[in-house]
Amino acid sequence: MAYVQPSESVVASMLLLGIIYRIIRVVFPMGRRSTDMPPGPSTTPILGNAMEMPRQRLHLQFSKWAKVYGDVFSLKVFNQTIIVVNSPSKVQDVLDKHSLSSSNRPMSTLADMVTPNNMNMGTGRLL
């Protein structure tokens, strides 16, 4: 049996399909919540919950979502996952039980915006 060399168009088509597949794998999950994350508001492709995030008084929206999804819920903004812990007891649980995975986090600009006078978000006390 003789070896038949594939035509250039077949090779180009296979390469193009590979590139399209890779783009879909990267872009399609963007905005979707992973199955191992806490529940949260439904997301839209690519944007996630970006259009539902208020620019002011974010804490009020978090309180509304906590009534629907519980004290711990997740949001997806583009490719960023945000876990919201909305009760002091749950924050204490996270700090006590998951200290290794939750310590050494970068400073949060959002936390600085919603907590007055350098207040600790976990305990509600001034630092």
TrEMBL record:
InterPro entries: Cyt_P450, Cyt_P450_sf, Cytochrome_P450_fung. Its cofactor is heme. The chain crosses the membrane at residues 6-24. The keyword Metal-binding applies. One of its GO terms (molecular function) is iron ion binding. It is found in: Membrane. SUPFAM superfamilies: Cytochrome P450. Belongs to the cytochrome P450 family. This is Uncharacterized protein. It comes from Pleurotus eryngii (Boletus of the steppes).
